[in-house]
Structures are given as C-alpha cells and as structure tokens.
Amino acid sequence: MDLRASVMVVSFDEQHLIADCLSSVLDQELPSEAYEVIVVDNGSTDRTPEIVRHQFPSVKLVSAGGNCGYPAGMNLGLEHASATRVVMLSCDTVVPRGWLTALLEPMEADPEVKVTHAAMVIPGDPGYEDGLAARRKPEWAAYHDISWLGLVEPHWVSTSHPPVPTLHVAGASAAFDRTILPELGGYMMDGDFFLDCDEIDLGFRVNGLGYRVLAVPGAAYYHRHPFNTKMGLTRRIASRLIRLERNKALVFYKNMHALEWLACLPLYLFGGALKPLVYAERFSPPRLVLSILGLEMFVWFGFLTAVFGHFRRFAEKRRIALHNRRQPRFWFLRQLLARPALRRVYD
After folding, report:
1. Nearest alpha-carbon partner for 216 in 131, 81, 313, 109
2. Which residues make beta-bridge pairs with 270?
3. How far apart are CA 220 and CA 165, in angstroms?
C-alpha cells in the first residue's frame, strides 16, 4: 500500500506530552500501513528520545543534533519522509481517530489544494477536558486566519462546517503537498524564523502561487498548550514578542511587492498591538489598555529589528517568492481587507 501521509512531530524536552501525542497519532481510522510517523528531536535533555525509542518502536526517530527551531525541524523531517503529503504536528497535541483522514481528504479531492490545517480546541474552551480525556471529535472548534489588522484570530465553527480558504496556516496541525517545493524556492518552512510566523509565511507563499490553503474544521484536535494572555513580562517573553513582530514584518516583506507592502504597513504597525482585544474578556480594562500600549512598543522594536537587521538577509528569498508569485499585485492587500477583525465568528 502506498503511503498516504508522513506525520512529522518536532520535540524538544517534551517527556510529559510526547507519549499522549504519539499514542493518538498511531490510533487513527486509517490503517497503520497507510502512513508513517517521524519524530525529529531538537536536542532534548530529558527522556523524550528514550520514550519514543522504547515505547513507540514503529516511529522513526531523527536527531537534529541541537535545537534548530520548529520550522527547521520540520524541514529535517521532510528529508526523511516517504509520502507525497506530509503532516506537521506539534507534540503538545492530542488528535481524535478521524483527524488524519479529515485533514487529507480536501487535498485528495482537489489537486489545487496544497495545504490543509485543522481547527483546534484549547484549555478553557467548552468541552475541552471531557473531549481530551475521551479523544472525542469536538462539536465546535476554532480555525485561525489572519485578519485585516494583521492579527491571527480564532473563528469558532461547527466541526461539520466545510473547509474554509485562509491566508494563514495553523502549523501545529497542517498537511502539505511536497510536489510544489520547487515553486516555493525548494523549502517548506523558513528555518530562519526559528519560531513564530513561519506558518503565516508558508500560507502566504502557497497562496501567492495561486494554490488553495484550507482550514478543515472536521480535522479538529486538542491543543494542550494554552494561548496564555496573562503572562508576566519576563526577559524570555520580551525576546519572543520582539521575534514574533520581527518575523511578521519579514513575512509581509518577503511576499509583497513594494507598494503593496507600504499599503499594508499601517495595518502591521498599528493593528498588531490590538491582539489583547481578541481575548478582551480575560482582561480588566486597565490591564487591557496597558497590554495594548506595551505590545505597540514591541511591534516597533520588531519592525525596526527586521528592517535594519534582517531585510538584506531575506532579500534573495523575497526575490524568489515574488518571481514565482502568480497572484496579481495588491492581491494580499485585498484579501486582508476582506477578512473580519476583533470579533468571534460563529457559523
């Protein structure tokens, strides 16, 4: 039987999560001979590799030799994958039995669909605890897309809802058709991002080629790492916020023509700081205002870091992306402006 998919999981010190993730991936409706599972270990210092090696002998374990980041880890997994369609999965996830079938079906039905990504349920969402324990397919879940403010926002839908075209790719659970690698410049994920916004970049590049990217509510899964909106400001968090905003600026720069990028610049510079409004119910009014003002500072730090420290480094990737792009000028701007912002969508 030909492999329908290669499922790739990148791990780094995940000894408390990896077993639950792999157990769920290996218990799918698809027969086991229809897919393979690959774990790329990013230099874990805990028992993660030992758990994979001894408890899951059918899983292919690949050592990255150090922490190369999530996107580079996925690219390494791709080098060891045998199937045409590869599935990226974060190790802090648990997937229902029908997850893989649902994720692959739109790609197998339509050759223009080159990426699919799953809706998710996170801690605090209705039905999370009971559904996670039973590995039950959720009735409702949130897919994510980028809004006209440049924010990645959740959209709550029934898991019976048909697939939805998106610009964004939720990289914690996404399938990719590797046949388009030459058109993407020879790489799937941009390893230079290390972490954060690499999945937005993938979505932009695939959309730019004229192919379809679909969010699949029927492939809903449980993401155990919460979107923590009540974090204290530590040095580590500050560094990550700057990297996130830097990488978002690089995504826009890589995938847009100059005038289109300039037109989108106000959305990036002044929209990114409004992220707390997506989860406004979790904040007191004073904390909400302070969070927005604080994030605006990080937006500018990230932007200046990108312009003066990284634009030249990404110039060749930008040249390739724009050379291969089939969408007309200002296509991304029109797509962004058509997408809702700062409201939960329930369908």
Report:
1. 109
2. none
3. 16
